[in-house]
């Protein structure tokens, strides 16, 4: 029926556009070349088009489609009145905007721009699968849609006789396309068709909207420590580059707590600040209050800024007024990395740093301050590092290999205990050669000088000067065998080196090597310690084997196993370091990668005399069709434990999908050595295309001074396009 389409176009639609639309198009045409001016015509296609001269109207029937400025109107029947300049669409009405948004109605009357007007039996599809329906709707020129008897959901509603998992029903609603907000009057949230709660007013952003100020979804529940609580966040979009979230916490057992989170982007970087504060006494795991009521709070903050393409500076702040504050209020993020250096569990680290890196150099400098949260921590004995510095320059010597020169310093001061100041300068050289027969030969040499200025009253010496160094080579024989289904690689290797003896003076305080352990990652390093205060000299010999199998389907299995021998024992190394005698334990690492279905990684340390298991770390993750889990098992034998006691535990968390919608959630952290379930949880979850509901019981056996075991029941649910309800932050 293209014949009728052309006649309809000439007969009237292109000649009677609204004045506002004409003015808008005229303005646009002034800024565009004539060939690019917008087309002001309405194109109409239909099976039948005829004119009602008495009513001054044009009627189109059967598969009707009208197009105007990228907007499309489809209906069974359209009537265009030339006098009123209104288009009335009847039957299966669909309007598709230029951005792809769709609106539906049983009957609709709009202006000839196919936009403003009213609709009966209205519905619309929004972003992220959301939809809204109403008995009637009025669309105004400013983009505001007024709706009556409204239903909003993100669930699929096309299937017959299906009740959406959740809906918002309201007497009236306004969908503001300019502000991208949907607001309701007399709203009722329904779950599975059952009313759950009523709100006289409710508003939330259109799923396609950008960020904006407003109240966020609250948290509410019961904690064994703070009692019944309610947390109401408010998000303030201060500017295009900054925002602030204010979240007061009200609880039955303790005074209110204010939470703040501020974010700001700058031209050269960004900052993030999380803080909280209250006026409160101490309280134990049962919420019993004691002690003096005073100001308490915390600040976690970080920022990074570019100085030049190769240099940046940044900061990290971690501080709280008392050492159990974060556990009393379940403040998370204590182990997040906020700068160049990472902290340790129950230790806060504040730092200011600068980093530079180019093609042939690297440098960093930092100021560090620690705050202890452990019961045995003494603030006067924790050091202030001012500064910690490292810089290196690399040289490509061509056929003579690669060289490096470096400098380092560390200045540590304490109110109680040993102060120390170290300055170091060193150089190293390494080369790589391929020998006949496929052998690889890597000679190396390194030398470094250290100067320590010490507290003579504590260390017994005012200063220590030493020279350390190693020279040696690594020889390896890499073998490779490709196959139809699997490629095999095998590499036996030997490293031999000789270094200076008696380099670890007892007067030197060991600050940076207390938790170091020699393993497969440093098997072929001349110095088994990658830090400064301890150095491995004398003669040493390492032998190891690396094997790898890679299947064509992506499966990969690899392992490395090896051992180290030393010419002389060094009393500076303890048993935990694995370098305490003339022979290290056997060390090995194995990994299996089957893709998302299964990933295994293990590290093992076997006794050098009887192959007894001294240490085992095993990590596994699996994601099958109906099963997902992550687990970790560890075991440390008392023979290598710094405390002389065995340590063993297991952690596992996951989810089993029982049906298409229902799943079981489980989690366990068990201290096997002490026969204690440190934490456990079990629950049930319901999930569909638009929501997730969780009911979880958990118990925490953590005891830290005045805080004891706790348990709770949590109900959490997530509604697609609206966010999360409930809380997992309190126990």
In the CATH hierarchy, the architecture of the domain at 1-115 is: Sandwich
State Rg.
35 Å
CATH class of the domain at 1-115: Mainly Beta
Total helical elements? 4
Gross morphology: elongated
The helicity comes to under 10%
Mean of pLDDT: 86
The CATH topology name of the domain at 1-115 reads: lipopolysaccharide transport protein A fold
Q: What are the segments in which pLDDT stays under 50 over at least 5 consecutive residues? A: 1-38, 724-731
Strand content: over 45%
Structural class by SSE content: mainly beta
DSSP, total strands? 43
For the termini, the CA-CA separation is: 70 Å
The main β sheet shows up as:
31 strands, antiparallel
How is the secondary structure organized here?
Elements: H1 2-11, H2 19-30, E1 43-45, E2 48-52, E3 57-68, E4 71-81, E5 86-96, E6 102-111, E7 117-125, E8 131-139, E9 144-153, E10 166-176, E11 181-191, E12 194-205, E13 214-215, E14 219-223, E15 227-231, E16 234-239, E17 242-251, E18 257-265, E19 269-283, E20 289-306, E21 311-320, H3 325-328, E22 347-357, E23 361-372, E24 384-396, E25 402-413, E26 420-430, E27 433-434, E28 440-454, H4 456-459, E29 463-476, E30 479-481, E31 486-499, E32 539-551, E33 556-566, E34 586-593, E35 598-606, E36 613-623, E37 627-636, E38 647-657, E39 662-671, E40 676-687, E41 691-700, E42 710-719, E43 723-725
Antiparallel strand pairs: 1-3, 2-3, 3-4, 4-5, 5-6, 6-7, 7-8, 8-9, 9-10, 10-11, 11-12, 13-16, 14-15, 15-17, 16-17, 17-18, 18-19, 19-20, 20-21, 21-22, 22-23, 23-24, 24-25, 25-26, 26-28, 27-28, 28-29, 29-31, 30-31, 31-32, 32-33, 33-34, 34-35, 35-36, 36-37, 37-38, 38-39, 39-40, 40-41, 41-42, ...
């Amino acid at each position: 029926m293209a014949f009728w389409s052309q006649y309809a176009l000439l007969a009237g639609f292109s000649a009677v556009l609204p004045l506002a639309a004409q003015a808008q198009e005229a303005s646009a045409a002034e800024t565009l070349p004539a060939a690019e001016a917008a087309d002001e015509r309405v194109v109409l296609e239909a099976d039948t088009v005829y004119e009602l001269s008495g009513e001054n109207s044009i009627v189109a029937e059967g598969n009707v489609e009208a197009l105007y400025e990228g907007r499309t109107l489809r209906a069974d029947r359209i009537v265009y009145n030339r006098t009123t300049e209104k288009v009335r669409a009847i039957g299966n009405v669909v309007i598709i905007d230029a951005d792809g948004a769709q609106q539906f109605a049983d009957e609709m009357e709009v202006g000839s721009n196919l936009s403003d007007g009213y609709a009966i039996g209205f519905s619309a599809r929004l972003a992220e699968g959301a939809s809204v329906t109403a008995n009637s709707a009025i669309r105004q020129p400013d983009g505001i849609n007024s709706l009556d008897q409204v239903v909003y959901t993100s669930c699929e509603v096309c299937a017959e006789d299906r009740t959406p998992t959740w809906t918002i029903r309201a007497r009236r609603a306004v969908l503001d396309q300019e502000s991208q907000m949907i607001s309701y009057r007399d709203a009722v949230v329904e779950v599975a068709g059952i009313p759950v709660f009523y709100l006289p007013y409710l508003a939330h952003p259109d799923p396609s909207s950008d960020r904006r100020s407003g109240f966020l979804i609250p948290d509410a529940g019961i904690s064994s420590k703070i009692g019944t609580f309610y947390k109401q966040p408010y998000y303030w979009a201060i500017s295009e580059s900054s925002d602030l979230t204010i979240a007061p916490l009200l609880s039955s057992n303790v005074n209110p707590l204010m939470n703040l989170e501020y974010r700001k982007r700058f031209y050269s970087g960004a900052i993030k600040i999380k803080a909280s504060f209250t006026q409160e006494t101490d309280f134990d795991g049962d919420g019993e209050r004691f002690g003096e009521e005073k100001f308490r709070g915390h600040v976690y903050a970080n920022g990074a800024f570019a100085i030049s393409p190769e240099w940046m500076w940044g900061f990290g702040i971690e501080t709280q007024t008392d050492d159990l504050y974060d556990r009393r209020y379940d403040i998370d993020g204590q182990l997040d990395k906020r700068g160049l250096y990472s902290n340790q569990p129950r230790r806060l680290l504040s730092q200011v740093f600068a980093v530079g890196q180019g093609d042939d150099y690297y440098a960093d400098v930092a100021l560090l301050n620690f705050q202890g949260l452990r019961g045995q921590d003494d603030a006067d004995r924790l050091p202030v590092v001012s500064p910690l510095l490292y810089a290196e320059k690399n040289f490509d010597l061509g056929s003579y290999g690669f060289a490096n020169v470096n400098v380092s310093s560390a200045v540590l001061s304490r109110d109680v205990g040993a102060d120390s100041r170290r300055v170091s300068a060193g150089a190293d050289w390494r080369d790589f050669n391929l020998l006949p027969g496929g052998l690889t030969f890597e000679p190396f040499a390194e030398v470094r000088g250290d100067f320590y200025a010490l507290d003579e009253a504590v260390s017994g010496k005012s200063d220590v000067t030493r020279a350390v160094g190693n020279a040696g080579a690594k020889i390896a024989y890499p073998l490779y065998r490709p196959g139809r289904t699997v490629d095999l690689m095998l590499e036996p290797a030997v490293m031999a080196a000789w270094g200076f003896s008696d380099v670890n003076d007892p007067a030197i305080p060991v600050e940076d090597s207390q938790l170091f352990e020699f393993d497969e990652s440093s098997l072929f390093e001349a110095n088994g310690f990658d830090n400064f205060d301890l150095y491995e000299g004398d003669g040493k010999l390492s032998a190891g084997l690396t094997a790898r199998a890679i299947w064509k389907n992506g499966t990969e299995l690899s392992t490395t196993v090896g051992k180290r021998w030393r010419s002389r024992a060094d009393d500076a190394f303890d048993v935990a370091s694995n370098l305490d005698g003339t022979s290290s334990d056997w060390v090995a690492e194995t990994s299996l990668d089957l893709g998302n279905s299964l990933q295994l990684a293990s590290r093992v340390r076997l006794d050098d005399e009887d192959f007894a298991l001294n240490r085992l770390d095993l990590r596994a993750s699996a994601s099958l069709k109906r099963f997902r889990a992550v687990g970790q098992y560890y075991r440390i034998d008392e023979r290598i434990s710094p405390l002389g006691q065995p340590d063993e535990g297991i952690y596992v968390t996951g989810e089993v999908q029982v049906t298409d919608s229902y799943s079981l959630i489980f989690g366990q952290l068990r201290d096997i050595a002490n026969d204690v379930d440190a934490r456990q949880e079990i629950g049930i979850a319901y999930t569909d295309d638009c929501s997730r509901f969780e009911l979880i019981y958990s118990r925490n056996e953590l005891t830290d001074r005045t805080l004891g075991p706790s348990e709770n029941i949590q109900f959490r649910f997530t509604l697609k396009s609206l966010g999360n309800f409930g809380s997992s932050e309190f126990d």
